Amino acid sequence: MSNKFNYDAIFSKKSSDNPINIVSHAKYDFAVAYPAPETLPMDGLIQSLATAMDTNSEKVSNEMAYYPHILGSVELREFTSQKLRDERGFIVDKDQIVLTNGSGEAIGLVIQALTNPGDIVLAEEFVYMGTLNQFRKFGAEVVGIKIDDKGIIPDLLDKQISDMITSGRKPKYLYTIPEHQNPTGSSLPKSRREEILNIAHKYDLPILEDDCYVDLRYESVPEPAFRALDDSGIVIYVASFSKLLAPGLRLGYFTGPDELIRRSLDFRVGSGPNQFAAIAIDGYLRNNQESHKNNFNPLLKEKYQYMNKSLVENFSDFGAEWSNPEGGCYIWLKMPEGCDISSIRDKVFSDGVGYIAGTNFEADASGRIGHNYARLCFAFESPEKNRDGIKLLADLFKKYRVAN
Ligand SMILES: Cc1ncc(COP(=O)(O)O)c(C=O)c1O
Question: Is the CB of 176 under 6 A from ligand 1?
């Protein structure tokens, strides 16, 4: 048969024909969302796989011969449980941890367990696009909450929820990235976390806490997780190995109340995530997490400093402002009101500098508040490229007349 079969009458209503997104890199790539390839501890990960094979070959072979446990590798869950206890200050049993195919899968499973089409969810007014996409895919209406340079402003959150309830639009839950927020880089102080928890209880509003960037801290110490401040089950906690190690490993996790775990897992297609990656991560981090962070985070700091210094030198005269994160991957650049750096993004990319325009992060997708913002990833390029790329970005903003 040579005629192509026509699926037009077959495709589901929910399916959409989006282009397959092939990532292309600008010469100075500040658009990505991950650390530099050279910081990936490839040798260490391979070595830990080899050690597991040498010391425990029968066990590893058996694990590889079957589909993984639905919750994922027992050993990596044990390690994660200790990590959460020692570093994030809360105790969960390994059987209350679900390993996932990146934390994106964790977020998707939880969203599906909690969301009916038409439900209203709250998130920071600028927030990670991947989660926004999943909210939209599963029919949630996302309402943005006002933020400042420290993140969610509790008083405004309280008022916003109360106004919404008055108008018959009670939100169902809150998604937040409290540490080194994506895209703004802010970290929420402990006192605000406590206030937000009080508000959450007042309105029976669960908090989906996304701690994706917590390991990438080069200044000071992390604030306690929401989950560490509240043991009632109102907090669902998600985190990832993508930023600490590498996104290609595709391993993240979540924890929450038992029924939430069971209902989320009901949406999982297939078994737990890749066992090979889990063995490598477990072996590597058990022995090397501290030394890895001690190598990685000072380099991250240097990259941040080069980008920040170049912003000071090249953007101060534009009337621009930008965030000063203590970790994570991003600086959030704010150009003066009325300055549209969203529409020139493709031209600037072709001329050598990649960034993600602020409009992409608008929680409510209004297209009204993000035009003069950009997310700049400082974690990927070298310190010198951060310096030179920001200088070129300033020149391009002048060339396209969004700055003078
Ligand atoms: C805030 C946040 N959460 C979750 C993810 C998903 O990461 P992964 O699925 O690689 O764990 C990302 C990726 O950029 C992110 O920025």
Answer: no
Torsion 303-309-315-321 (CA) sign = positive
> 256 and 184, same structural domain?
yes
129 pocket-lining for ligand 1 (C-beta < 6 Å):
no
Q: How far apart are CA 244 and CA 294, in angstroms?
A: 12
The reply to whether 224 and 313 lie within a common domain is no
Q: Verify that 241 and 157 share a domain, yes or no.
A: yes
Q: What percent of the chain has pLDDT over 70?
A: 100
pLDDT digits (tens, 9 = 90+) for 148-166: 999 999 999 999 999 999 9
Query: d(Cα 318, Cα 393) in Å, to the nearest integer?
Result: 12
Q: Do 47 and 36 fall within a single domain?
A: no
Residue 17 lies inside a defined structural domain of this protein: no
Q: Is the CB of 224 under 6 A from ligand 1?
A: no
pLDDT in tens, 28-83: 999 998 888 888 899 999 999 999 989 988 888 888 888 899 999 999 999 999 99
Return the amino acid letter for 142: V
Give me ligand 1 centre to Cα 190, in Å: 23
Q: Which atom of ligand 1 is nearest to the CA of 241?
A: 11
Q: Mean per-residue pLDDT for 285-289?
A: 95
Asked whether the predicted pLDDT for residue 2 surpasses 80, the reply is no
33, 186, 293 from 36: Cα distances, Å = 10, 21, 14
Ligand 1 within 6 A of CB of 106: no
In the reported structure, the alpha carbon of residue 334 is separated from the centroid of ligand 1 by a whole-number distance in angstroms of 23
